[in-house]
Amino acid sequence: MRSLQVKALTPQDLTAAVDLDRRCLGGLWNLDGYQREIHSPNSDLLVLQRSEKTEEEKSKGQRAKGEGNTRHSTLDTPHSPALLAIGCSWAILEEAHITLLAVDLDYQRQGLGQALLYCLLKAAHNRGLERATLEVRVSNQAAIALYENFGFQTAGRRKRYYAETGEDALVLWRGGLHHPHFPQTLANWQLAASDRLGRSGWQLQELEAKNQEAGNSI
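The chain above was modelled as a monomer; its predicted structure follows.
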């Protein structure tokens, strides 16, 4: 099982964040842009990265080395970036505006986006915000499906929102972050995200710890 860590972006991660942005988003923000987000009290800028190798991973690596195996382990991908995923949301009055959510191309469809979206919405709930909004390309069906699984609904459409392609954007909206039942919704999302990561061979410690707490409270 591969270990993941979720954390706030730090100044030491800036170069890796810009690199991930360039590869996944075409250079949406530059170094100065990410630096401003780090220092903004109204921004939640989170990343996923590989944790230190587990004892199982270390043991497998040592066995492969001892056997003279030069092939990649099944635990690895052809690309090993410093950051695997990045997400950001702004707190604007009672609203969390999700400005970006990107997963490295070699690590997509493994549940990382689902886990990071959960973390952003939990951060919004912790701030006492009431709703969340975002824009997404109309052609990005995978992202739209992910957001819909988290209860987002289409609230509008922005014509030719993406200047480089002229593509429209859907405006998605999700309310109820301040309702009394929302903590249980968060707990359900934790369980679903943890299960999805586990089926892809990942373990996010933050989710696992909270899953145990949720299980004890049911």
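The chain has seven helices and eight strands.
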